[in-house]
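Methods, example record. To illustrate the input and output format used throughout this study, we show the complete record for Dihydrofolate reductase family protein. The sequence lines were provided to the predictor; the line carrying structure tokens was produced by it.
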Amino acid sequence: MGALVIIEFLTVDGVMQGLGSPQEDTEGGFTAGGWGAPYAQSIHQITTASGLENTSSYLFGRKTYEKMAAFWPHQPSDNPMAAHLNATPKYVASRTLTDAAWAGTRILPSGVPAAVRALKMTVEGDIAVLGSGVLCRELLAEDLVDEIRLFIHPLLLGAGKRLFGGLPAPRHLALKSVAQTDLGTVALVYSLQP
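The corresponding predicted structure is encoded as:
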């Protein structure tokens, strides 16, 4: 059975975004895009190859999928992240997407919670969710998340998309590990408790 793992890059005040460029996500008039890029290289100080090795598939929301699909297939194959993303099965939770051109991608049928439950039963290893804030909130509310890996960067933005929202009930977490880069990014790994 697969384990659903949320992996997110956040500011201290909870703004989420990838490690990309200023144009990565300007939705809602967000102008502080690209804030994570200065911290990208230091992430390798606290991550290991085992994270990729344990990831057997990826799950995305539509918006994140479209951004990833426009970028990663065009990166050099000697980039370990590009090689892994391009070779690993990918799933998209979307009510509107009808075509997924990125090789190895399947669109989940409607009814995300049921589709993700079925996916967890059919795969081994970690199912990594990158970005995809709306999807993450839905998965947390449906009690489908097994682990949360947060990379918290030493920055306050004051505005932007937040990862966490309302939940039907409090969720208890167990801290599995803590690590820090020389730039002050802190990696926290939590498992979700019943």
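Annotations derived from this record:
The first strand starts at residue 3 and ends at 11.
The longest helix spans residues 112-122.
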